[in-house]
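Example 359.
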Amino acid sequence: MSARHFAQSYPEAREKFAAAAAAAGLALERHVHPRARGAEGEQLSLDCARLGRAGAADLLVLTSATHGVEGFCGSGIQVALLHDAGFLARARSSGVAVLFVHGVNPYGFSHWGRTNEDNIDLNRNFVDHGAPRPANDAYAEVHPLLLAEEWPPAAEREAAIGRYIAERGEFAFQAAVSGGQYAYPDGLFFGGHAPSWSNQTLRQVLRAHGAGARRLLWIDFHTGLGPYGHGELIHAGRDDDAELARATALWGSELKSIYKGTSVSARLEGLLAFAAYDEVPQAELTGCALEFGTLPVMQVLQALRAENWLRRHAHAAAGERAALRRQVRDAFYCDAGDWKERVLAQGRQVAWQALAAPA
Ligand SMILES: [Zn+2]
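Predicted structure in complex with zinc ion:
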């Protein structure tokens, strides 16, 4: 049964990951957050388990919960792979070391939000913060529409969003909202004004584990875009045709590109995978995001507005808070057997393909 690998809360996911790593004979490396706490007051941590020798030339990195609540999916895949004797044996015989990084954004995972303890979207946070930040005029236009004063939002506000979509289309709205912005710390898809704790911690992990790597393969698990249960492979890296060609050779021609406009995702700046260029500069990066569909995109965006409203209204009644949190979790994690089966089948396949990478 696939469902047993998936959890209902961050602490449960973390326990399952620790138990699966132990069952596979792997040590757990824990990086505890120095200040943020979980929804039940628990400690938060980014946890790693490594299969394969230190200094291996080929390193496969598997990351979950870059977007907090999306971690229910990625954690389930990681736990399933750690219990998959065939996968572990194949990794050992292939010589590819596998680094499982669990809970990149543990705060969002525990609180059922997409952003971190500072409302930062980690997959927009890996920009050069010393350089002028990317502008996003399209976001500036929709920001006042998105941030509701009351919940549910007033009818006029929703009508204005409806007009925007009627005039320019749903993808234009999605791209304006989700492309990433650096000007509104209380807004949606905020990339931050400095490297977050998760950013710094992940860099430290990559430096330590990637020291001898010549080739770095990376799969970052996401949810929230695309058809229910369908995993879209999206090239993760910079706009580089050689990189895209390598990723396509590895994962197949289904692989999409945010730079070519073929993906369900808008074009983004500051991707997590960009850390590889700084921290493992000697290695050739071949990376992808595996993005699983959940609910229709407008429902997902509505859930993110609810998450954002909750963050700005800390004194919302307990009942309302619980209902909105649940709405966010449901938008990024379909707690259903058929969805989990499909997620694991595709997650496994993409990880297996990475082990078959030609040297
Ligand atoms: Zn995501």
